[in-house]
Design brief:
Two copies of one chain form a homodimer. Chain A is α/β, with parallel strands linked by helices. Chain A contains 18 helices and 15 strands. In chain A, strands 1-4-5-15-10-11-14 form a seven-stranded mixed sheet, with helices on both faces. A four-stranded parallel sheet of chain A has the order 8-7-6-9, sandwiched between helices.
Chain lengths: ~450, ~450
Amino acid sequence: MSKEIPYKIYLEEQEMPKAWYNLRADMINKPAPLLNPGTLKPMTAEELSAVFCDELVKQELDNDTRFIEIPEEIRNFYKMYRPSPLVRAYCLEKKLGTPAKIYYKFEGNNTSGSHKLNSAIAQAYYAKKQGLKGVTTETGAGQWGTALSMACSYFDLDCKVFMVKVSYEQKPFRREVMRTYGASVTPSPSMETNVGKKINAEHPGTTGSLGCAISEAVEVAVGTPGYRYVLGSVLNQVLLHQSVIGLEAKAALDKYGEKADIIIGCAGGGSNLGGLIAPFMGEKIQKGTDYRIIAVEPASCPSLTRGKYAYDFCDTGMVCPLAKMYTLGSDFIPAPNHAGGLRYHGMSSVLSQLYDDGLMEATTAKQTEVFQAAETFARVEGILPAPESSHAIKVAIDEALKCKETGEEKTIVFGLTGTGYFDLVAYEKFHDGKMDDYIPTDEELAKYAAKLPKVEL
Amino acid sequence: MSKEIPYKIYLEEQEMPKAWYNLRADMINKPAPLLNPGTLKPMTAEELSAVFCDELVKQELDNDTRFIEIPEEIRNFYKMYRPSPLVRAYCLEKKLGTPAKIYYKFEGNNTSGSHKLNSAIAQAYYAKKQGLKGVTTETGAGQWGTALSMACSYFDLDCKVFMVKVSYEQKPFRREVMRTYGASVTPSPSMETNVGKKINAEHPGTTGSLGCAISEAVEVAVGTPGYRYVLGSVLNQVLLHQSVIGLEAKAALDKYGEKADIIIGCAGGGSNLGGLIAPFMGEKIQKGTDYRIIAVEPASCPSLTRGKYAYDFCDTGMVCPLAKMYTLGSDFIPAPNHAGGLRYHGMSSVLSQLYDDGLMEATTAKQTEVFQAAETFARVEGILPAPESSHAIKVAIDEALKCKETGEEKTIVFGLTGTGYFDLVAYEKFHDGKMDDYIPTDEELAKYAAKLPKVEL
C-alpha cells in the first residue's frame, strides 16, 4: 500500500500470465451460440473447422474451462512486446486537477501499433501447429492485417490479406508494413475470387467494403487446401486471447495494492474491451466486487446503446454464421468516422450478453470531442493515441472531472489500445476544423433494424 | 550471473540515472572548442548565450564536471517513456544461428519515435527555467521537430519549427504530429525572415535545405525577445543529455552480469552514438576495458570514414560557429538517402576527437543492404526500425555472423534509435526494387574538401 507507484508498472517476465482467462466459464448466462444460417441450429465443431483451425474451434465453443494455458511459443512471442505497461497518468491527473487516480493499459508499443497482435500470434500459432500452409483475412483500417502479417512472418506461414480497396489506395503505409512482413495484400473486391468478380461486375469502380473483403477471404480459405480464415475481433476465441490485457492490468494493480473503481474501454467488435475487463468482470460476477465497467462507442455507430439484441449476420455478405448480439443490422454502413476499428455493425456475443444482464454500462462519444480528448492526452502524456482508443480517453476524462466536482478519489483504469501514427489524415481534418459529427437518426436505425433476420429458437 | 536474462530488461524507476555523464571530463584529448567565425577565437559564454539558453551554454563549455544532475522535472518527464528497454534479440540470434549474444537499446517507444526526446525535454526545461517565451529550431525528416514540439508542449513553451519545404510537403504526417503538440510549423525557406526572403528571391521555387532552415531559425531566435535557438544533435550538450541511453544500457547489462564486447551505433551528427557509448568509452579510457566501438554511417554521407578532420561551418548558411570535426564540407549535399537523420556533413566534435584518437572505429553501409537488414530484423524481432537505426542493425548482423564462423560468443550491443513509421515511402521503394546505392567518388569529395575554411590556431 505504501509503495510509491511508478509512472509505468511493468510486470516481471515471471509475473506474466501463463494462461488466458475464459470469462465465459464464470458467466451465469452464457453467450448465445453461433447458428448455421441454413439450419438455424448451433454451429458444430465440424462445421466450424472448415473455416477455422481445430484448436480455435475448440476455444470458440468452450464455455466451461476457466483457464486455458498459453503455449510456450506464444508466451515467448509475448515476451518480445509484453508485458505492456500499466501507466499511471500523473500528468493528466495534474492537468485536470482531479483527485481521481487514472491508469491506462497501453497496448501500442509494438510495430502493429495495437492490441490486435495478442490474438494474431495465437491464431497463427494454432494454424502452424495444425500443419497449415497459410491463413486469409480481411482488413479495413489495417491494424489487424498488420498484426496478422507480423504473426505469420514469425511462424513462417503464408498470409493473404484482402484489404478494402479504398484503404489500400489511401493507406499505402499500412500496406507497406504488411509487405515488409511478407504478406500478400490484395485490394478488395479483387478478380481473384468469384464473389470479387461478381461485385466488380455489378458495381464497376467500387472501392469495396469490409463485408466484401470478409467474403473474399473466406472463399479463398475454404477453397484452398491447407488454408483457414482468421478474424481479429468479435469471436469468443479472440476475447479469450485478449484477456492477457486484463490479467496483466489486474496483476499490476494488485502488486501495488490498488483497486479499480471504474474500468473503461472503447468498443468496436469488442476484442479490446472484452480482454481488458475479463478478470474484473469475473470477480464482479463471482464475488460481487464493485466495479463500474463502461463501454464507449462512437455516436456514429452505436450498436450497444441504440442497437437491437438479436441474431444477425456477422458480415454484410451474409456468408458467415449468425451471432446473437447487439446490432445495427449487417448492412448498416456508418457515416465517415475516422475510428476505423469502431465501425462494426455488431458487438461480440460475450459483451452483448453481459450488457444485457446489466453487468456493464455503455455510452457514446462524438468524433470531435474524441479528438479534443486525444489532443489533451497527447500533450500531457506524450503518446499520440489512436482515434479508437481516444473514445476511452474522452470518458475517462469525464469521469475524472466528475471526481473533481465531488472530491472523490476514485481509481479509473482505461484501455489505450493503440497509437495514431496511421490516423494523421484524421488529425489533420480535426486541426483544420473540417471534422463533422454525424449521429444516425432513429428513422435510419429503424430502417436497418427492420431488415434483421427473423430467428426463433 | 546465473540469472536468466529476460527478453527485455527494464530498470526499476529508482535505478534510472539521476545524473548525465559528461564523457568530456574523462577524455584525455578534449574536443576542440567552437570558434567565432569572425575572430577565429573560441566562442565565449557571452557570445553563445545570444543564441542558446544560459544553462545549456554552461553545459556546452564544461569539459570538467563528470556528472551533471538531471533536474527532477526532467527526470519526471523521462519516467513517462523511460527507462527504454534493453532487449535481448533472442529471435534474431536464432535466425542467424550465431553463438553471439545480441542486445539492442530501443529508443523508439515514445510518440516522437526516436531518442531525440531525451535532449529536447532538457533543452525545453532550461529555456522555461530561464523564463523564456519560446524556442526555434529547424527540422528535416522531422524527428527532432516532433520531439521538441512534445517537450515544449509539456513545459508550455512556444515552439517554432522551420521545416525544409520538401519535407513539409512530402511528410504531412510529421507536420501533423507537431501541430497536435501545438507547434507552429513553417516551410523553409519562408517569407518570414530576411534570409528566407533572400533565398526565395534568388532561387524561386526552391524546396529548401537544412542549412537554410537553420539560418531562418537562428535569425528568428536572435531577433525575437524571449526566444532562443535549440539544436538536436552535434553539440556537446546534446551528447551529454543522450548519455542517459548509455547509462541505462550499462546499468541493465551490469544488473545481469553481462559485459559488452562490441558496441555499435549509427552516426549522423552523433547524438545517439555519443549517448550510447558514453559510459563504455569512459571506462575504456579510464580503466582500459576492452570495448570495440563502431560508428556506422551511410556510404552516401561518409564523414568519419572519408572526411577531413578540420574546422568547418556547422551549417550551410555559414552563420553558426566553426567546429572542429570530421567533415565533408558544409556545402556537401548527400545523394538521395532515406536515412534523413544521417545526412549531416559533419560529426560531433566529441566523437571526431575520439575517432581521431583511435578509440573507436567507423564503417559504412549501403542503403539497400541497410534495408535488407531492416527487413530481416523486423520479421523476427517485431519492430519496424527506422532507416537510420538499421545501419547499426546491418553491422550488428555482420559481426554476429563473424562470430558464427569463429564460434566466438561475443556480446554485441547496438542502438536502435527509432521506428520507421514515417519512412514507409523508403520501404516501398525498397520492396519495389527502386532503391539505388550511391557512393560519392573521391573526386567529388575532394572538390568539397578543397572549399573547407582555412583555420590556423
